[in-house]
Amino acid sequence: MAATRWRDGWGDTSALSMSPMKPPRFSSWRLAEATPIAGSCVLAAALALFLVPALVRATDPATSSRASPSEGGCSIFPASNPLNQDVSQAPVDPNSASYIASIGPTAHLHPDFGSDPRYGMPYAVVGAGQPKVRILFTEFGAQSDHGGYPIPPNAPLEGAGEAVDRHVLVLQQGSCKLYELYRARRSGGGWRAGAGAIFNLHSNALRHPGWTSADAAGLPIFPLIVRYPEVRAGQIDHALRVTVDASQRGYIRPATHFASGSSNRSDPPMGLRLRLKASFSLSGFHGQALVVLTALKRYGLIVADNGSPWNISGAPDPHWNNQDLAQLNRVPGSAFEAVRTGAIHRGG
Length: 348
Description:
This protein is mostly beta strands. Helices cover 9% and strands 21% of the residues. Strand 1 (3-6) and strand 2 (13-16) form a beta hairpin.
């Protein structure tokens, strides 16, 4: 069944064909650079952290004493960032039952990643000296962050270049900035892309209200994907990205962009946080799947795009045990509840 993906908060749509079960997709890798230089490119105008008071409590002792996730020598946002916040004690959203009914209570979790290098959200870690190249934005230039992006010519593309969204995710060491592209294609010595976003991983700043990113909700992608090294270490310390097949015209911060024209208030907004219920028993689960499910009780899922319901995103890695991850398919949507993390914003 095809789905329509909205990318513009003012009504323009981009219809993308999305199958209920996406075909296999690709693998993460790293580029080493020896010469450190200061990172350039500034984050597009952002909002102050106080815009997400329901989640961000930087002075909370439990938050300040906990280390944030990391990769390539960079912390993946401060521990106080909303994406890294423990929501195990957050109140249940009054509209939770309606949201779960919309997403699908009898549909099941699906790991949208695995050992197949064509399956998942690949990413690259590059050194501080990686040359920056020009990006030509073809769809959402007004909402994109302009300037050079340190994306190598052989950067991995989502779906090995065959996926519809063709995301490119690059983390630069030294500057600790994240560069993400949507619908990317190599073009001469640079790249063409539908949209692009730059995130300073040292900051909790948000994007402009109403702005998209490389993801429909205006969120970063890389900090929300499951990565093998953190699962191997036995703990995931952040929320995970999830897609739904229908969403409403609204978003909850830290999301900054809605992805639908629907006025149906029973459909989930972008940025909605979904928590695996404390009452759902994990006694029958083990290994890699158990690490993921434990994180879903503490940090939950965050609605980031339209697509197949309950698909959670991760980076491909040859070390994934696909049979182990298949345990996630046993978890029904009814095992989740929506939690209240802030107001729904319906304008730009």
